Amino acid sequence: MIYEQPRFLPGGDRYILIEFGNEMNLDLNFMAQGLASAVAEAGISGIIETAPCFASLLVHYEPERISYHDVVRELSGLVGALGPSDDIKLPSRLFYFPTLYLDPWCAECVADYRARIADKVPDPELIVQENGLKDVNQFVQLHSSSEFWVASLGFWPGLPFLMPLDPRARFTAPKYNPPRTNTPQGAIGLGGAANSIYPVATPGGYQIFARTPVPIWDQSGVNPAFEGDLCLFRPGDRIRFIPVTREDYDAVAEQVAAGTYTYNVVEYQTFVVADYKRWLTKLNGKAKVQ
Amino acid sequence: MITVVKPGLETSIQDYPGRLGYWNQGFPPSGPMDSWSFRMANVLVGNAPGAAGLECQMLGPTLRFDRDMVIAVCGADMRPTLDGEPLPMWQSVPVKAGQELVMGAARVGARAYLAVAGGFANDERLGSRSTFHKAGVGGIDGHAIKAGQSLPVAEARGTPGLMVPPEARPAIRTDKVWDIEVCAGPNDDWIDAAGQERFLTADWRVSSKSDRTGFRLEGPEWTFAEKAYNKPPEHGSLPANIIDHGYPLGAINLAGQTPIILVNDGPSMGGFINPYTVPSAAFWKLGQTKPGEILHFRLVSVEQAQEMAAKLTRLCVRETLISA
User: Fold this and answer.
1) Nearest by CB to B246, which of A48, A58, A68?
2) In this predicted model, what pLDDT tens digit does every residue of B213-227 receive, in sequence order?
3) Rounded to a whole number, what is the distance in Å from the CA of B21 to chain A's nearest CA?
4) What is the CA radius of gyration of chain A?
5) Alpha-carbon gap: A247 to the closest alpha carbon of chain B (Å)
6) How far apart are CA A8 and CA B216, in angstroms?
7) Chain A partners within 8 Å of B310 (Cβ)
8) How far is A15 from chain B (nearest CA, A)?
9) Nearest by CB to B267, which of A11, A154, A234?
10) How far apart (Å, rounded) are the C-alpha atoms in residues A31 and A8?
11) What is the pLDDT at residue A287?
12) Tell me: the pLDDT tens digits for B139-193?
């Protein structure tokens, strides 16, 4: 459900968690990001930073400069002024990622897990089963047709939690139990209802089915596409996974290694929640964002 | 410059309050775990309380000074010596070019802090010099210091002969039992009354699998309120699962049945509840706790926790110091 009034929950002496509801619902994330953007715009003295997640926003403040009650009062005011989620507009970059679906590296990683840790249905086939799809080709076709919304970043620096904007690409899958001890850098996976890209090779629990050669993490901090950051994404960005052949994948990987790859990003767009919902309505004849 | 002769167990450059402003990209603040001792060391040598210094964990480093400078060592007692002579702690001390500082295993406490007049002058990454070891960001090449490295130090004179009076130092426990303040929330209402009572009365042993990312605690089983069972399926299958949400620094994060206190290098978000949060003013105690020691938790209000933090900040200033 979406709460009528968001809940303000204290987290120690310098954090407040604001819950907008208790379900996975894009609308709740729009509200969290809308509030984050309103907080940044308001420039409230003593608020250090915010971090949106699926259905909530974490606010970090400095009690030496603003009291808990004043933070709650300021934020309540901003929530009130924000109005319904339909009114929210967020700057949103769109990234295109060359993607090799059903790639050999993820397949090898899964095979290794099945041989050493626990036998399981291979990840792409498991997603097909769990979501009543015809075959992996249908999954790839639907997955690569949607834009994905960066709902949140975290767990590992720069790791994006992605929600499909097209309801036809909305899939769920259980997480690995026990988790994998390794995942290829750039692997794309699904766990619960969230998709992600692994910024570096790490342990992981998502079902993995594709890989992009384009880095989303740059420790050197010199890649111009990152604009001074070490990770590529910000909450509210969008991603499209573009299926490529192995030859194209290798060609991009070579460009990345040579430092000549140019990120494919559209920077002039604003995400208008009302327009998005209108499109959804056309699509399925229902106004509610699921 | 300071040359690293031996690095110690995991010695890293940190500043305070660390790397703020990047929580929404998943970057933790890092910084010293015991910011009381850390700030005092800086104030002793004439630095701003948050200037970059060294955090020495469990086993300290051996360092050679390449020029004359003023230093201070605070926090855990690692029996520091300068060219073989005991070096007084909680004092600003002049050192000469070529002298060697040797720090051993922590006898009392777990983390010692070395400040040098001027502060360490490694490059800032995302606005901080702090080392975030897990992702290889900040510090020297992103990691703990290594033998043979030269640590850059900014030029500053510093005043030797100052001391932190005993009453202004953190009382590091020698009996292996700590009273740690906690605030209720954000998710205390997921725990039933018996579970809340149990949390506040039980002995919680700090596991050996504890580091700057999190302190894992061993203790009794948790019991949950109705809310933890009766929830939409997207929260996850365990009672302690919740739709992924942001984690406050200091959160007591309930990973299934294992509470983990998320500390300076911890994760920014995840899918477990945080029934309690350790406030910033109690972090120094965690920083001085060794694996195997026992924590008791004591409930304080948000306002009390904020007053404790303000008191510490008022204490960690030049005016507190006396002549040695």
Assistant:
1) A58
2) 999 999 999 999 999
3) 5
4) 20
5) 31
6) 27
7) 63-64
8) 6
9) A154
10) 14
11) 43
12) 999 999 999 999 999 999 999 999 999 999 999 999 999 999 999 999 999 999 9
Q: How would residue A286 be classed by pLDDT, with cut points 50, 70 and 90?
A: low
pTM for the model stands at 0.94
Look up residue B188 and give its two tokens: 């205390």
Q: How far is B12 from B52, CA to CA, in rounded Å? A: 10
User: Cα separations (Å) of A7 from A19, A37, A55, B34, B107?
Assistant: 5, 18, 11, 32, 46
**What distance lies between CA B72 and its chain's CA centroid?**
18
For the cut 90, the answer to whether the pLDDT of residue B75 exceeds it is yes
User: What pLDDT does B234 receive?
Assistant: 83
CA distance A19 to A16: 10
CB A120 within 8 A of CB A114: yes
The owner of tokens 């302190």 is: B215
Q: At what angle do helices B302-315 and A68-82 cross, to 10 degrees?
A: 120
Q: pLDDT digit string (tens) for A147-199?
A: 999 999 998 999 999 999 999 999 999 889 888 989 999 999 999 889 999 99
Q: Shortest CB distance from B243 goes to which of A24, A154, A159?
A: A24
User: pLDDT tens digits for A134-157?
Assistant: 999 999 999 999 999 999 999 899
Measured in whole angstroms, how far is the alpha carbon of residue A117 from the centre of its chain? 28
Q: Which two tokens stand for residue A13?
A: 């002496």
Residue of A nearest to B312 (CA): A64
Say if CB A233 and CB A153 are below 8 A apart: yes
3-state secondary structure of A278: helix
State the Rg of chain B over Cα. 20
Average pLDDT, chain A: 94
Structure tokens at B142: 């992103």
B196 three-class SS: helix
Q: Does B277 touch chain A (CB under 8 A)?
A: yes
User: Measured between CA atoms, how close is A245 to chain B, in angstroms?
Assistant: 31
B24 inside 8 A of chain A by CB: yes
- pLDDT tens sequence across A66-83: 999 999 999 999 999 988
Closest residue by Cα to residue B103 from B116, B90, B87, B117: B87
**Chain B residues within 8 A of A157 when measuring between CB atoms:** 22, 25-27, 132, 135, 137
Q: Is A54 on the interface with B (CB under 8 A)?
A: yes
Largest CA distance in chain A: 59
Q: Is A156 on the interface with B (CB under 8 A)?
A: yes
d(CA B206, CA B292): 5
Which position has the higher pLDDT, B84 or A24?
B84
CB contact under 8 A, B246 and A161: no
**Cα separation, B20 vs B17, whole angstroms:** 7
Output phi, psi for A256, to 5 deg. -60, -45
